[in-house]
Write a structure and sequence with these properties.
95 residues; 4 helices; 61% helix; globular
Length: 95
């Protein structure tokens, strides 16, 4: 199931506002990751996929946490679901 246009706009706006507030520029990899996470969660919600896995590998400080959070929070809110984000390190948990 595709991500609704309203959710796409909400996610894109949140990403733009976050970057603008910090004087940062968008990153292609972040944008791709946001889209992949949102689509995977949409497929999970509607049951259109039996395999809902998204693997992302990138160096420290590239914005992975930002990307999956910006995608996952609005998707969970729209679906009325709780969201748990678990990380391997205390440093990431404190962010």
């Amino acid at each position: 199931m595709p991500v609704s246009e309203a959710l796409q706009r909400q996610i894109q706006t949140a990403y733009s506002e976050f970057l603008d507030a910090r004087g940062m520029k968008p990153r292609r990899g972040q944008k791709q990751m946001i889209g992949h996470i949102a689509r995977m969660l949409a497929d999970l919600e509607d049951g259109s996929s039996d395999t809902n896995i998204c693997v992302v590998e990138a160096g420290t400080g590239t914005g992975k946490t930002l990307a999956y959070t910006l995608a996952a929070v609005p998707m969970a809110q729209a679906a009325g679901k709780s969201l748990v984000i678990s990380t391997a390190t205390v440093a990431l948990q404190e962010q």
